[in-house]
Amino acid sequence: MVGAKKEPAAPRSPEPPPGTARMRITAILTSLIFLTVGVSIPVSDVLAADERSTRSSRDKKKARPTGRMSKSPSKKTGKKLQEALELINEERYADARTILDQALRAKNLRPIDTASLKRFYGFTYTGNEQYLEGIPYFEEALALNVLSPKVSLDLQFNLAQLYMATEQFEKASDTLQSWIATSEFPEARAHYYLAVALTQQDRIDEALGQAKIAVDMSERPKEAWMRLLLNLYFQKQMYADMLPLLRYLVKYHPKKVYWSQLSAV
To answer: In the predicted model, what is the mean pLDDT of residues 13-20?
Structure first.
């Protein structure tokens, strides 16, 4: 009708500014992606199997040295090593070091004797979770280059994990790369640890390759391994590659965060 007042229009919702939807999705992913700063190596992994023994079913595992050497230590040194081992298993670490100190002061020690004593000396610290104190003794034992290939590889792998635990990531990555190149059958977890060490150094492309190897080598990859690879894909904006990982995670680890990430991707 002419002259009639028009009904006021209903207020309109403001249009989202350009890029808002993408920003919201990115925020969801960023808030849920596993931050690599939180990646850590469990203490149970730091002390490898060849360093552990069990006195009884109720006792906790204790660090202990094992393994055979290319040349056996002298009988005198072997006796001291056995005494130290018993003390280590009793968690009498200071007493074990006293025994090893005496043995290291002996005259005419062969390199294999020194390397064996240094190796056990390191166990007196790592068994008590004094990783920084134990590392130099393992380094010295390896530097003598007289331990058998198997013992050397085991000790090198343990040393790499100790570097990880003490946040010496460059040393960890160098040691792990050497271990992987030397080992006949490198383990998937070595590639994961290497990926973590490289990530901590912002070497994202290298880390992504190692994380992918770790996941591909495993029939049922660990959740933490998948989350690390997921994070690396996200940092590289490789969203399509994130999809199969998220589908796996919602299947085997059906948590809300993974469903939210999957819908966001």
So the answer is: 44
